[in-house]
């Protein structure tokens, strides 16, 4: 007897997600509002492919000795390594460099798309996720950085997040470089230790001052003890060095601490230049009406990527949410960016200033769901035209009804299953949340009539016997009516308008 073959097991790859219709609509709604802000600022769309040659992605994430480290890579037929992009900035740098003689500078552009990370997935950490970026290439002054911060603030407010529930925090890598010089970590020989310090500071929100202090020193055990997790090596700074770094990132009022900060980095020309740029950004955004509750100078902002060379900024949401441990925590960052003047130079050999930011689409959508700011529940399910007779002539009549509804701007579909079991058609309509079912059998056809079944009203009437507090403002309507064929469109429009009014009054608590 032949062995029955095993069925293939359907399984979703770890770190990837399937997206539902509501998620897709919510994303489209959110991105349309963001896009409108970018367009208002004079930015234009551009799109690059998901694959780039691995060496073009740069030295910052892919390890050239291990082409699959951190990214998903394949070899071309000419043995060149290609990788799925890990962000949208490196491909933009390649695009600008390749077309630099044709592109009008400053080049103000935005783009959205999926990026990929070949990393271990975990809670809230995915291998594929969407970003929405905006960049200004060829704009050297801090006024371009200030504009980016203002555009981030406007985009967040366009999504319905009010002032007081977000802040754009701004720092400057040059100031941080000055602090590094002040603690003896200047020069190329200390590049790795500087990066360790940056990563430690970036964990301030997660681990607090005590945890960052450990990471600046000898290191930190996950969970606080050897038996609770892995050990992370620290930067190896001494107490005096740690105190200077913590003073810098602990500044909460920049204007009051400016003198002490200036004294700390007095010997650093680069650091002093960073302070001047920060002051200029602060002055520009204030002149445009952006107060400190919207855009704030904050020395604790680091941003993890090494290619930032000047201003860095981060969009943080300030309202509380409950995490997976049941704890109340602040929602935190939903995007950020900064100035990266050296990235394009890798290709062109000449300085091309650039600044930009990236919004984490999935994370921002989660925030909007928490605030109940997504209106995807307003999408009306299609009207269902049922099938009472399956011959070609009858199907043609039903199909014409569907097309007439669609041409009138009404979502509609004809039932495509086994038409002989009419009860299954209504069950299908119920599962699809269809508001209306159109019914025409042979008797109705001979009389030139159509039955319209109001599925929403029918469900309401069915619940009245158990719902003693049923809504009183809505006059009882028949759950099914008979109309003339010529009145189909007007009758469906009227019924859908009544449903919309019902939803509005329910939302108002009438």
TrEMBL record:
Residues 29-382 form the Aminoacyl-transfer RNA synthetases class-II family profile domain. GO terms for molecular function: histidine-tRNA ligase activity. Keywords: Aminoacyl-tRNA synthetase, ATP-binding, Cytoplasm, Ligase, Nucleotide-binding, Protein biosynthesis. Its main location: cytoplasm. It catalyses: tRNA(His) + L-histidine + ATP = L-histidyl-tRNA(His) + AMP + diphosphate + H(+). CDD domains: HisRS-like_core, HisRS_anticodon. Its EC number is 6.1.1.21. It comes from the Bacteria. The keyword S-adenosyl-L-methionine does not apply. InterPro entries: aa-tRNA-synth_II, aa-tRNA-synth_II/BPL/LPL, Anticodon-bd, Anticodon-bd_dom_sf, His-tRNA-ligase, HisRS-like_core, HisRS/HisZ, HisRS_anticodon. Belongs to the class-II aminoacyl-tRNA synthetase family. NCBIfam families: hisS (TIGR00442). PANTHER family: HISTIDINE--TRNA LIGASE (PTHR11476:SF7), HISTIDYL-TRNA SYNTHETASE (PTHR11476). This is Histidine--tRNA ligase. It comes from Roseibium algae. The gene is hisS.
């Amino acid at each position: 007897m032949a062995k029955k073959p095993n069925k293939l097991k359907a399984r979703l790859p770890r770190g990837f997600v399937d997206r539902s219709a509501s998620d897709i609509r919510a994303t489209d709604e959110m991105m349309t509002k963001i896009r409108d802000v970018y367009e208002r600022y004079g930015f234009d769309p551009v799109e690059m492919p998901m694959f780039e040659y691995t060496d073009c992605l740069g030295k910052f994430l892919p390890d050239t000795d291990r082409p699959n480290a951190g990214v998903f890579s394949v070899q071309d037929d000419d043995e060149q390594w290609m990788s799925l992009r890990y962000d949208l900035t490196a491909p933009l740098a390649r695009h600008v460099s390749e077309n630099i003689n044709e592109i009008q500078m400053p080049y103000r552009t935005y783009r959205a798309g999926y990026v990929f990370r070949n990393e271990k997935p975990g809670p809230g950490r995915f291998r594929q996720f969407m970003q929405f970026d905006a960049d200004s290439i060829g704009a050297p002054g801090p006024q371009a950085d200030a504009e980016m911060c203002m555009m981030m603030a406007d985009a967040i407010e366009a999504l319905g997040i009010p002032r007081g529930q977000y802040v754009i925090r701004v720092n400057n890598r040059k100031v941080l470089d000055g602090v590094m010089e002040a603690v003896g970590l200047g020069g190329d020989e200390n590049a790795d230790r500087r990066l360790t310090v940056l990563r430690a500071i970036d964990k301030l929100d997660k681990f607090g001052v005590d945890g960052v202090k450990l990471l600046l020193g000898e290191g930190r055990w996950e969970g606080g003890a050897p038996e609770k997790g892995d050990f992370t090596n620290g930067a190896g700074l001494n107490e005096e060095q740690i105190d200077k770094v913590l003073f810098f990132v602990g500044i909460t009022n920049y204007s009051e601490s400016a003198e002490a900060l200036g004294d700390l980095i007095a010997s650093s020309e680069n650091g002093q230049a960073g302070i001047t740029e920060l002051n200029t950004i602060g002055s520009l955004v204030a002149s445009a009406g952006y107060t400190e509750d919207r855009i704030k100078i904050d020395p604790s902002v680091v941003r993890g990527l090494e290619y930032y060379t000047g201003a860095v900024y981060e969009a943080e949401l300030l309202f509380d949410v409950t995490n997976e441990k049941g704890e109340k925590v602040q929602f935190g960052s939903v995007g950020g960016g900064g100035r990266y003047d050296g990235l394009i130079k890798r290709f062109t050999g000449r300085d091309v200033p650039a600044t930009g930011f990236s919004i984490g689409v999935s994370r921002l959508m989660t925030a909007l769901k928490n605030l109940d700011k997504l209106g995807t529940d307003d999408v009306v399910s299609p009207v269902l035209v049922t099938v009472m007779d399956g011959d070609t002539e009858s199907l043609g009549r039903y199909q014409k009804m569907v097309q007439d509804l669609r041409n009138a701007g009404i979502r509609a579909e004809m039932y495509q299953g086994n038409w002989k079991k009419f009860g299954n058609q209504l069950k299908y309509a119920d599962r699809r949340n269809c508001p209306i079912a159109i019914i025409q059998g042979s008797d109705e056809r001979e009389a030139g009539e159509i039955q319209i079944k109001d599925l929403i009203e029918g469900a309401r009437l069915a619940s009245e016997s158990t719902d003693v507090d049923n809504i009183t403002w809505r006059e009882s309507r028949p759950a099914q009516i008979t109309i003339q064929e010529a009145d189909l469109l007007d009758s469906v429009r009227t019924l859908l308008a009544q449903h919309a009014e019902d939803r509005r009054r329910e939302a108002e608590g009438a």
